[in-house]
Design goal:
single chain; Rossmann fold; six-stranded parallel beta sheet; alpha/beta; about 350 residues; 5,6-Dimethylbenzimidazole Phosphoribosyltransferase, Chain: A, domain 1; 6 strands; 2 domains
Length: about 350
């Protein structure tokens, strides 16, 4: 059995009995049943996935994986590839959107180079797990080998293991990679069966002509590579990205450690979808932070049976939406564990 197979096998369905006990606790709190809506659903989910009736979801961590994509040579991005390393340095300096929002919700940020086409040398704070200087051009052949795809997943697993060992109790996914909405759209089309044009958006700001060209590039890549939707590793290898694979691994590793994983937007959801196709029980361990403006996002969430917590018109990535989602996860658990019951507060319940 390979390391990846062992991780997948270790992820078990949640215990329905534990969910029932969480529901009984929620119904005993000083409020009408269900009156806190999604927060109550979220609290119950966290109980189920952690296996604890009084879970802790702090300290919190956002893991932002960075990688480049050979398909940018096809003109699928309004921004040049040089922006990827520039933004990595911005993350490390604390100046990006994810840094601001992570500070706001009290989360740490790890930045992981899994495949940036730039030699950073030694940079304080950067976690170097570079597997290759980006993927190949998926419009001309497979984005990467099957072996490299699996290695990218294991980088994410390693980060989840490392986080768990350091005591983090909630994880969030983030990414950076110019051109990465293109592989994410391809993954969405493969697994959902929705037409490419219906899951492909403007990414960093393409005009109408650029969007049409991007759709054509993805269609060409799918026709050339013929990724097999029954084989998630094949899909990742042929039309995916190194950071997308690492996100899949973080989702799997978090679930194996029974730690909630809050999934960010379009790119992160493509990684989560790869992971969910590898492990059918995974969706119970994932929290969809928000609905992205990117048109293919909802189709992927629906494929996994996930309902986003928020709709804030985000489309930045980096882990920004997931950081906000971490705050809601913490709020849900605090309602479950800190709110008084009718009995303890001496408040009359309904007849």
């Amino acid at each position: 059995m390979s390391q990846l197979e062992g991780i997948i096998k270790s992820i078990k369905p949640v215990d329905p009995g534990l969910l029932a006990r969480a529901q009984a606790r929620l119904d005993s709190l000083t409020k009408p049943p269900g009156s806190l809506g999604r927060l109550e659903e979220l609290a119950k989910q966290v109980v189920g996935l952690t296996g604890e009736l009084s879970p802790k979801v702090w300290p919190k961590l956002v893991v932002t994986f960075a990688a480049d994509h050979g398909v940018v040579r096809e003109g699928v991005s309004a921004f040049p590839q040089e922006v990827t390393p520039q933004m990595v340095l911005n993350f490390l300096a604390g100046g990006a959107g994810i840094n601001v929002l992570a500070r706001h919700v009290g989360a740490e940020v790890w930045v992981v180079d899994v495949g940036v086409a730039h030699d950073f040398g030694r940079v304080e704070g950067l976690i170097d797990r570079k597997l290759a200087p980006g993927t190949e051009n998926m419009a001309a052949g497979p984005a990467m080998s099957r072996e490299l795809a699996e290695k990218s997943i294991l980088v994410g697993v390693e980060m989840a293991d490392k986080a768990a060992a350091q005591g983090f109790r909630a994880l969030a996914t983030g990414e950076m990679g110019i051109g990465n909405t293109t592989p994410a759209s391809a993954i969405a089309a493969v697994f959902t069966g929705v037409k490419v044009e219906e899951v492909t958006g403007r990414g960093t700001g393409l005009d109408e002509r650029g969007l049409e060209a991007k759709v054509a590039v993805i269609e060409r890549a799918l026709e050339l590579n013929r990724p097999d939707p029954a084989d998630p590793l094949d899909v990742l290898a042929k039309v995916g990205g190194l950071e997308i694979g690492a996100i899949a691994g973080l989702c799997l590793g978090g679930a194996a450690a029974r730690i909630p994983v809050v999934v960010d937007g379009f790119i992160s959801t493509a990684g989560a979808l790869i992971a969910a196709k590898l492990c059918p029980d995974l969706s119970d361990y994932l929290v969809a932070a928000h609905r992205s403006v990117e048109v293919g996002h909802l189709a992927m969430l629906q494929e996994m049976g996930l309902k986003p917590l928020m709709d804030l018109d985000f489309r930045l990535g980096e882990g920004t939406g997931a950081a906000m989602g971490l705050s809601l996860v913490e709020a849900a658990v605090k309602i479950l564990t800190e709110m008084a019951t009718f009995e303890s507060a001496g408040v009359s319940n309904k007849e």
